[in-house]
Design brief:
The structure holds two protein chains of two kinds. By secondary structure, chain A is mainly α. Helix content of chain A is 77%, strand content 2%. Chain A has 18 helices and two strands. In chain A, a hairpin with a 5-residue loop joins strand 1 and strand 2. In chain A, helix 3 crosses helix 10 and helix 15 packs across helix 17. Chain B is mostly helical. Chain B is 75% helix and 2% strand. Chain B contains 17 helices and two strands. Chain B has a two-stranded antiparallel ribbon with strand order 1-2. In chain B, a hairpin with a 2-residue loop joins strand 1 and strand 2. Classes of the chains: A mainly alpha, B mainly alpha.
Chain lengths: 377, 369
């Protein structure tokens, strides 16, 4: 409760929470497209490539204003993306190699520039190393305002070109056939991804920012098949992970970036397991249920076949020992108990089993539908 | 050069060579991004192993790191096999999560141990000479040199021993499976090598440079050759050269050594991308240009040959007719006529282009083929 009351009273905490929420909304909403367009790893490459941009922007302007650093980050991140696409298009180098190469080379170049900065007497420790893992506690109101403004620009872009981006994400060939300039839109949407990355650099850091782009989208994907819902959910998940992670890291005094990433990963894990239609738990449960139904129907059919051999007396008790051997004792006993509970089978004195009249009707109904669907023996 | 500088250079060369070997297969198998993932997550292995043995110089740390490297691969495959997310998303989810756990664990240890996440990411090869290997009181050089030397030998030995299997599983996994080699076993074996190399190297050069050294030199070598043994050799040479070049660049600029090595890897790749004899961008552009001119000349010859001896010949063979007929711009048409004349394929007689015997033969061959 202390944290909650502090949230409204404490300046630092409020700034941190607002900033993380803004970051989460932007990276979540824009990241949803990256997940759909298989650009998860491109985001990783771009966020590493942002480091030299941040360092160069500081070196050139001498300013630590968030907007200037963000612009620097966006420029190099964007150039890296262009370089990756160009290398893949112009040579036999594959996308994964191009991404890993740009990522590490840009990061290395960023380190070189950082050493220049650290040597400047005036700059001293410019705090730029915070960009590696991020530090929410260092967030200022001006940071939050800049993040919100830049992020709003990105979200506006998505809203304005919603229909086009939707087509581009799901069926680029169809989009092209409609005369939509897919190549330009592709560049534009990738540029928006840069925005998603730079808004989080100071809070989450270059190393882990890619996770904030991927995780909310991957989680949201599990809950819906509609793009609008997915992007909204993704933004909400992102905001939730941002606020929760930032508050946790402030109270537990852990690094902010990793904490936010772990919260977001937790959301993905829950979504993968428990999302209503796609969740693994439900899928396993459905599989188990249909397996049991099949076993039940098989035993029903077996008993019906036994009854058919007795012609006149359909409810003559049968020894089910032979069926145990075929179906397995455990399966048989469970199936028989369930059939009895549903009133489809009955146990006679002396241990024999037979179908009830209702069971016989059900068995012949099943046999008819099976014949109709063509998989009768 | 001082002996410390020589030590640093030796360590850098050995690290580069050790990274190039498994890196070659990563690049060929389109799994370069796994080097990024593994080089981050091995940190978790180091931290966890440290909790067990409480000793930063224990070799158990390398074992722990290699195991977590394999765990990374396993987790990525498990997540992507659910079919709920794609493989790239799975990589993008798994390695930041494991790395985050490692960073948080480390920060909870802060103060007690010399192990911080910045150092692991960035590495500091300049300190390598100060950690000496001194069994029985004798000084046998930096520990990093021995560790990476051993890893290089392991990498080379495994590659040599399983060369056939690696080659087959890389280029034709279906055939490899059909012949009874397990592609999965080869896959995990390779990933184990990547993990061991990553953990050994990042003490010296940091995890990001590990990625650069694993991916950059093989990518450059891939543009230079089509033969696997040659690609392995070239990767090692390019990697070692970049490491040495990076070291001198760092001394020149007084900058971070690992960072400038990665930068030089990038420059080396760029140079190869531009200048590779067959596949370089310059060579490709020149080939395209040459083909364009040679195609235009052929068109001219075929045109002349078609109308040779027909009533329309006088009209069709005028030099200015080419501009209209072929829709060539005037300067282009003049250039084509000029180069064809220079090669002795046509001659200009009374404002008419005439085929020489050689030109006639060239046109005939062009039409037949």
């Amino acid at each position: 409760m202390d944290v909650l009351s502090d949230l409204f009273l404490d300046y630092t905490l409020r700034t941190v929470a607002l900033g993380s929420a803004a970051l989460g909304v932007v990276s979540g909403a824009l990241g949803a497209f990256a997940v759909l367009r298989r650009q998860a790893l491109l985001g990783d490459a771009m966020s590493h490539a942002a480091l030299p941009g941040v360092a160069l922007a500081f070196l050139i302007t001498g300013s630590r204003a968030p907007l200037i650093l963000m612009i620097g980050a966006a420029v190099t991140g964007w150039l890296a993306a262009v370089a990756i696409v160009s290398i893949v298009r112009a040579s036999r180098i594959k996308a994964d190699t191009a991404m890993a190469l740009m990522l590490s080379v840009c990061f290395g170049a960023g380190l070189v520039v950082l050493t220049f900065i650290q040597r400047q007497p005036a700059a001293g420790k410019a705090g730029l190393d915070r960009f590696l893992f991020g530090q929410a506690a260092a967030m200022l109101e001006s940071d939050v305002i800049t993040m919100a403004a830049v992020g709003a620009l990105g979200l506006l872009g998505v809203l304005v070109l919603w229909k086009e981006f939707k087509l581009l994400s799901f069926d680029p060939d169809f989009a092209a056939s409609l005369g939509i300039p897919t190549r330009r839109l592709d560049v534009l949407l990738t540029s928006l991804l840069v925005i998603a990355i730079v808004v989080g650099l100071k809070t989450v850091g270059v190393v882990l920012m890619s996770a904030m782009v991927v995780a909310p989208g991957a989680a949201a994907r599990q809950w819906t098949d509609r793009l609008g819902t997915m992007v909204t959910l993704s933004a909400l998940f992102g905001a939730g992970a941002g606020v929760l992670g930032a508050l946790l890291s402030t109270t537990a005094e852990t690094s902010t970036g990793p904490t936010i990433v772990l919260v977001a990963t937790g959301m993905v894990a829950v979504s993968l397991l428990f999302a209503p239609a796609r969740g693994l738990v439900w899928a396993r449960l459905r599989a188990w249920r249909s397996q049991r139904m099949l076993a039940l129907e098989a035993v029903l059919a077996d008993l019906a076949a036994l009854a058919a051999q007795h012609g006149s007396d359909a409810t003559h008790p049968h020894d089910v020992g032979a069926l145990h051997a075929v179906r397995g004792r455990v399966v048989m006993q469970r199936a028989l108990a369930e059939l009895a509970a549903e009133g489809l089978a009955q146990r006679h004195d002396g241990g024999g089993w037979s179908l009830t009249a209702q069971g016989l009707a059900e068995a012949s109904r099943l046999a008819r539908t099976r014949r109709a669907s063509g998989d009768a023996p | 050069m001082t002996s410390a500088q020589i030590d640093v250079l030796l360590v850098a060369i050995v690290v580069a060579a050790a990274c190039a070997v498994p890196g070659t297969f990563l690049v060929l198998r389109r799994m370069a991004m796994m080097s990024d993932a593994i080089s981050h997550t091995v940190l978790l292995g180091i931290v966890l192993a440290f909790f067990v043995v409480a000793d930063l110089s224990s070799p158990i740390l390398i074992v722990g790191a290699a195991l977590v490297g394999l765990l990374t691969v396993l987790l990525v495959e498990t997540v992507s096999r659910t079919g709920l997310v794609r493989e790239d998303t799975a990589i993008g989810l798994v390695f930041p999560a494991l790395f985050s756990i490692a960073v948080i664990l480390i920060s909870s240890l802060a103060g007690n141990v010399h192990l911080d996440s910045d150092a692991v990411l960035l590495g500091e090869i300049a300190f390598a000479p100060f950690n000496r290997f001194t069994p029985f009181g004798g000084d046998l050089g930096p520990i990093a040199l021995w560790v990476m030397g051993a890893i290089l030998v392991i990498n080379l030995a495994c590659t040599a021993l399983f060369f056939k299997e690696l080659k087959l599983a890389t280029f034709d996994p279906a055939l490899a499976a059909a012949l009874g080699f397990s592609p999965a076993l080869v896959h995990y074996g390779l990933m184990a090598l990547v993990s061991v190399t990553a953990v050994g190297a990042f003490d010296a050069v940091g995890s990001i440079l590990v990625v650069a050294l694993m991916v950059g030199p093989p990518a450059a070598a891939y543009l230079l050759t089509d033969r696997l043994p040659r690609m392995l050799g070239l990767s090692i040479v390019i990697g070692a050269a970049s490491a040495v070049g990076g070291y001198w660049l760092a001394r020149l600029l007084d900058a971070n050594i690992a960072g400038s090595m990665a930068t030089v890897v990038g420059i080396a790749f760029l140079l190869v991308l531009l200048l590779a004899p067959q596949r370089g961008l310059v060579a490709t552009a020149r080939r395209r240009r040459r083909q364009r001119w040679s195609f235009a000349r052929q068109m001219l010859l075929i045109h002349l040959a078609t109308h040779e001896g027909t009533p329309a010949e006088a009209d069709e063979s005028r030099p200015d007719h080419m501009q209209r007929h072929m829709r060539w711009p005037p300067t282009f048409a003049n250039r084509v006529v000029q180069t064809a004349t220079e090669r002795g394929l046509i001659v200009l007689e009374h404002d008419q282009l005439r085929l020489t015997p050689q030109g006639r033969e060239t046109a005939r061959v062009a039409v037949v083929s």
